[in-house]
Design a protein that fits this description.
- This protein has 233 residues and is of the alpha/beta class.
- The protein is built from eight helices and nine strands.
- The chain has a six-stranded mixed β-sheet with strand order 4-9-8-5-6-7. Strands 2-1-3 form a three-stranded antiparallel β-sheet, with helices on both faces.
- A hairpin with a 4-residue loop joins strand 1 and strand 2.
- The radius of gyration is 18 Å and the shape is globular.
- It starts with 6 loop residues before the first strand and ends in a 13-residue tail after the last helix.
């Protein structure tokens, strides 16, 4: 988790403008064809982008080979598909941590979050995905999980987690794989589901990712958080 975006600039939506909270901004772009919006840490940056959003979108970038599971910027919910956005982190890593989830299906939004008193970034990234799939309602629909954790996305897409489980939760170098309890549950939850994992750059103006961060931060700051019994620190 990093400094969360506090301002959302909407160039194309029901009511274009600048909003200082995601729920209100989301109401302007949810289900709006061709919506264009971006999150920023300051109002000034949001105003500058809103003056010429087209210019910002055509700045040349160095070419790079996209790895499997990466996604450049198209994280908008798709009709007929369950779109799940997750984020997680821990202050001081390890320390108090939380996860946040935003699930969208045909315009319906469900938010989930939770926290633990002492945990790690990677455990909370995994926990966000686990909770999202535990609470998945439309289990007969294709699902896309957007995460800014390469650890999670590569662990699934590159088959690392399955290989670790096959070797008794050992890596190829015989070192113990971390977080076997959470990886095992995530693999079990994926059985029988049509789920695609995609990596998204964190804190790069993706509103749903920013909202997940807000949820995770808020839950990690609560009092009397439960113990993460699976953490072996």
């Amino acid at each position: 988790m990093a400094t969360k975006k506090k301002f959302y600039a909407i160039a194309v939506g029901a009511k274009p403008g600048i909003y200082d909270n995601w729920p209100e901004a989301n109401a302007q772009v949810r289900g709006f064809p061709g919506a264009k919006y971006k999150g920023f840490p300051t109002r000034h940056e949001a105003e500058r982008w809103l003056e010429n959003p087209q210019a910002a979108s055509v700045v040349p970038r160095a070419k790079s080979a996209r790895k499997p599971g990466q996604v450049a910027g198209d994280t908008a919910p798709k009709p007929g598909e369950v779109s799940i956005y997750t984020d997680g982190g821990a202050r001081f890593n390890p320390g108090p941590g939380g996860y946040g989830v935003v699930q969208i299906y045909n315009g319906e939004i469900k938010e989930l979050c939770g926290g633990y008193r002492h945990t790690t970034n990677n455990r909370m990234e995994l926990m966000g995905c686990i909770v999202a799939l535990r609470e998945l309602e439309h289990r007969d629909k294709p699902v896309t999980v957007y995460s800014d954790s390469r650890y999670v996305v590569n662990g699934i897409n590159k088959g690392w987690a399955k290989a670790w489980r096959k070797r008794g939760w050992l890596k190829s170098n015989k070192a113990p794989a971390l977080n076997p309890d959470l990886w095992a549950e995530l693999l079990d939850l994926l059985e029988g589901l049509d789920v695609t994992f995609k990596w998204v750059r964190g804190h790069a103006g993706h509103p749903q990712n920013e909202r997940c961060d807000e949820l995770a931060v808020a839950c990690s700051a609560k009092e009397n958080l439960p113990v993460d019994t699976g953490y072996k620190g």
